[in-house]
Amino acid sequence: MHDNLDAIFNPQSIAVVGASNRPGSVGHAIFSNLLGTFQGVIYPVNPRNMAVLGVRAYPSVAELPETVDLVVVVVPTAQVAAVVDEAGQRGVRGAIVITAGFKEVGGEGLEHENHLKAVVAKHGMALVGPNCLGVINAHNSVRMNASFATKSPSAGNIAFISQSGALCTAVLDYAMGRNIGFSKFISFGNKADVTECDLLEYLKDDPDTDAILMYLEDVSDGRRFIETARRVAWESKKPMLAIKSGTSAEGKKAATSHTGALAGSEAAYDAIFLQSGIQRVETISELFEYAQGFSQQPLPKGNRIAIVTNAGGPGIMATDALERHGLQLATLSDATKSRLKAKLPPTANINNPVDVIGDAHHDRYEAALDLVLADEGVDGVVVILTPQAMTDVLETAQIVPRASSRGKPVLCAFMGVMDVQEGVAYLRNHGIPNYEFPEAAVRAMAAMSRFSERLHYQRRHAAPQFDVDLGKVQQLIEGFLGEADSRLLHQAEAGQIMAAYGLPVLKNGLATSLEDLERVLDEVGLPVAMKISSPDIVHKSDAGGVMIKLKTREAAREAFTTIVANAKAYDANARITGVYVEQMAKKGVEVILGSSRDPKFGPLVMFGLGGVMVEVFKDVTFRLAPMWEISAERMVQEVKAYKILQGVRGNPASDVESIREAILRVSQMLTDNPQIQELDINPMIVHAEGLGSAVADCRMVIERRR
C-alpha cells in the first residue's frame, strides 16, 4: 500500500493553499467545506489576504506555525509543483491537488505533471490528483470534506472512487436523494501518484467501508489491480462494483486472427474485472441499486429466491427477471405451503411467487414473509407491493425489518412514487433497500448472489506448471523468425510450438509434392484433412484450400492437385510451401481457443464457440494470463455454448476437462513466450467425455522482442 495515505484520509491538521474569500471560487468552496466539517486545525494559505473566512491566513506553507499532515492545493498549474515541493521540504506527508491543466491537456501540461510526480517521489509524499474534485471522509472521528462539492454526504459504509470529478458531484446529489451514505468519497483525477490500486489497498482494511464503488476510465497496472482487488474480495470479503467508460473499438485494428478481431481493450477490462472479483455495471443507477443491497443486507447463501407480492403481474415480471439474471425460483417445501394455506385466503397463491392478493393488509404480508424466510430452500426474498386503495403501505413497510432477521437478504419493490413514499422512507431508514420496479430488485439480488458464489470458489490459486522444454520452444521461435521482425505461422509451424506445450495436436506433415505426399500419408495414416500451406493465404477456406474426410490415397492425390490449383487461382502471387496433411479428428464439438496480447495488460486468453461463425455470434470470454485454475473452469462455463458441451438432443457430454487443461497450457505458453502476439486454435474439436480434444486448425503470430 502507498505510504502516508492516512495523512490524506485521517489528517489532524490541514493547510489549504489557495484558500480564498471570493465567493464562487474553488479555494473558497474547499475552505468553507472544511470549516463546516473538519474538527482538526485548518490553515488558509494566501499571500494576498490576512484572513480567509475569519481565519488567520499565512503567506506560504513554509511560514505555517506547525507542520500539517495534509495540504490541499488550489493554485495555478505552473505553481503547483513548487507549492508541493515546499510542503515536502516542511515534512508534509499528504497532498490533494485540485488544480487542472496537467496531462489531460497534453503538451506543457504533461511536462508540469511529470515535474509534479518527480517532486512527490523525492519527498515520499502521497498525492491525490491533480485535476480532481477532492476527498471526503464522511465516516470517522475526523470528518472532512476536502473538496469543492456543493454537498457533504451523510455517513455510510460505501466508498466511492472516481477518475471524474464532474461525475462525483452528480453522484453525491443522486445518493443524497436516496438517503445513501458514504465512508470515503474520492475523486483521484489524473492519478499522478495515488492510483486505484493504492485506494483499493487502503479501503481493504478500512473498518468504515463495507462496499466499494468505482468509476474508472483506465487501469494503470492490470496485474497489480487484479491482485489487489482479489485481496479485497477474498480476504476482506468486500464487494466491488465498477463502471468502466471508454468502450470504443480501439485495439481491434489489423488483427490477423479471430481472437485479435474480437479482443480489443474492453475484453482486457472484462477479464480484469472477472479475475479480480469485481462486478462491472453499465449505469450509475445500476451501481447504486446494487450497492444498497450489498451495504444493507446479508449475502444470500445460494441463488434460490422467493417472491412475495400482492399483484400477479409484477410477480410474473420478477419471475422472468430471476431467470434472465441466473437466479432460481425457490421451490417451497410442502410444510411451508401447508402453513401458508392456513394463513392466507383461499384465492391466494401458496406456490412461489406467493401472491397474498390485492386486498392484503400488513398482517397477511407478515405471515407470508415469516413463513417464506423460514423455509430452508429459500436463500433470499423479493417483496413486491402495489398500492391498492386498501393497502396499508407504512404498516407493511414496518413489518419487513422485523421479519428480515434470519440472516437472509430481503429486497423490496414498493412500486410507484407518491403513494408509497412514506413506506419507502421507512424501509430506507431501517436498512431495507427499495426499488421502484421488481426487475431492479432482482438485478441487485443477482449481483449479491454472484458475489456470494465467488467467495466460495475453490482452486483460487495459480495453475500448476506443466513440464515444458522452454529452450526447445525458444529455438523454434527464433528459427521461424529468422531475419524477420514478425511472422505469421500456419499450422505446420505453430503446431510444433503447441505440441511442445502438450496441446492435443493431431498427427501431421507437410507434403511439398505429389511424390512427397506418399511419405506423409505413410506417417499420418488415413483418413486425412488437407490444407494449403502459404504465408500469403490467411483464410484457407476462402481460397478453396481445404478438403476433409479424404479416405483413400487416390482421393488425397486428387485433393493435393485441386488445393494447389485453387490457391493459385485465388492469389497468383501467393507463395505456396506445400499442402498440410493432418489426421482427421474424430467427431466432436467445435470450440475456439486463442490469444491476443493487449499492449497494456499482456496476453488475453479467449475461449468460445468455434468454427467460422465465431465472429458472428461472438460467444466468447477472456482472461488475462497467467490465471488461476478456477479461471479456466469459469471460462468454459460462461459461454452460451456450454449447454452444447454438456450434451443436448442425445449427444454425449463433451470432455470439458480437456478444454480446461488446454486453456491452462495456452496460458503458460503465452506467459513463457512474450514473442507470441496472437494465437488461434480454431477449431479445437472436443470429443465425448474422457476422450480428450484435438487441435484441427491453428495459426500464430510471433514477433521479435524489443
TrEMBL record:
Q: Identify the keywords attached in UniProt to this record, alphabetized.
A: ATP-binding, Ligase, Nucleotide-binding
Any idea which GO molecular function terms this record carries?
acetate-CoA ligase (ADP-forming) activity; ATP binding; metal ion binding
The protein's matches in InterPro entries, at most eight in alphabetical order, are given as: AcCoA-synth-alpha (IPR014089), Acyl-CoA_Synth/Transferase (IPR051538), ATP-grasp (IPR011761), ATP_grasp_subdomain_1 (IPR013815), CoA-bd (IPR003781), Ligase_CoA_dom (IPR043938), NAD(P)-bd_dom_sf (IPR036291), Succ_CoA_lig_flav_dom (IPR032875)
One matching Pfam family is Succ_CoA_lig
Domain ATP-grasp: from-to ranges:
495-548
SMART domains from the UniProt entry:
CoA_binding
Family assignment from sequence similarity:
In the N-terminal section; belongs to the acetate CoA ligase alpha subunit family.
Q: What is this protein called?
A: CoA-binding domain protein
